Amino acid sequence: MLRTVSRLSRRRIRSRLGTLRVKYSGLSGSYAISVGAGLIDSIGERLRSILSARTRRVALISNRKVYGLFGAQLESGLKHSGWEVPTWLLGDGERHKSLASFERALRFFSEHGLERTDCVVSLGGGVVGDLAGFAAATYLRGVAFVQVPTTLLSQIDSSIGGKVGVNSEFGKNLIGAFHHPRAVFIDTDTLLTLPRRELVAGWCEAIKQGAIGSRPLFKRTVKYLETFGLLNSCGASAELEQLIAAQCAFKSGIVARDEREDPNRVDAKSRRILNFGHTVGHALETATDYRRFRHGEAVGIGMLVAGEIGKRLGITPQAELKSLHAAVKLLGRLPRTDDVEPAHVMSLLQRDKKSVDGSINWILLDRLGLANIVDGKDIPPGIVKGSIRSVLASC
Ligand code: NAD
Ligand code: GLY
After folding, report:
1. pLDDT at 40 over 80
2. pLDDT (tens digit, 9 = 90+) per residue, 58-79?
3. Among 46, 259, 261, 389, the one annotated catalytic
4. Which residues contact 318 (CB under 8 A, 6 or more apart)?
5. Is the whole model's pTM more than 0.70, yes or no?
6. Is 168 helix (H, G, I), strand (E, B) or coil?
């Protein structure tokens, strides 16, 4: 279902709200994450003080759907700032986050004579952002990159932290780089056109971020969902804007402390905790040929499995797991899982890229707001299988 908001109420929302800024500050430098309704109109102007005075071209990467919604606005602001704006539209969907698209992006940069002082801007969800960022990271050994995320998931998660990359025959996201953006511009108005399932996927990641690292953030996310549902019916609201900024602050705080996801770290603040729910989530996506779940939806179910494993190990209190279930339930029914074979999921887990030394590192919960990384070797396989079986049968 697409949501719309009248021009008048949009203007009211805009004038009521300022722009929130979250600063990312890590070893590789810092950048501002700006959050506000109607921000797209002013990105061209805002970028003038961020990009080099020698920048001549700002290459825009988007897809047809998102470009059709917001491309003209963004492009005209960039042109108004005096830059050439060559534009390239990627196909829509996960399968286009590929090496073939990556090569096409590089060819596009070359054909338009992009130089080291030029910049790449991505307009879209995580697929566009990951692909455009990887192309920017590698072209001429790295050109400036700016993210304009337009899905909830990309606004609170994938646009922050510098992970960029593509899928390949070796697996999902296995080819990539760390390349931080120079700036992230989050226009909350873009969420008004986002399909319901994409909102659900984003909210799953929002619940995840609270669950692994901040009880107040978890509670605030649940409160928003209880009060407004997936999106305030009056459109993007001040509450949503503030919540997105809080989610961004959380993610950037985790990344700043562990920029490159040190494989030796197993503490509760390591970047790896962001993979909560992803172990089983990826297996579910693979088991269903990437056709059934949005990535965030699969993570939602994966979180419940990790919660169940934690409970069966005596790590996660029953009441905390109940609160996690209640939070996920606020999102409505997730795609069915009762026909997915637990043994198939178990076999796919063995191939998970999050395994170190051949063993999976499970992100579990000591409680809501505190993650616990547990070596898979220390978990009896029966507990994993039993937990998968019980959650899959109930969803
Ligand atoms: P997506 O990019 O596929 O976007 C979802 C759908 O929404 C697409 O059809 C898109 O065209 C459409 N869309 C985007 N914005 C819209 C808008 N405002 N209105 C209407 N439709 C809109 O999916 P996603 O969930 O944003 O991102 C998933 C990707 O992000 C995956 O590839 C995942 O691996 C990656 N990811 C990366 C990181 C990271 O740290 N780099 C973190 C999490 C996920
Ligand atoms: N989304 C996982 C990470 O950024 O590390």
Report:
1. yes
2. 999 999 999 999 999 999 999 9
3. 261
4. 311
5. yes
6. strand
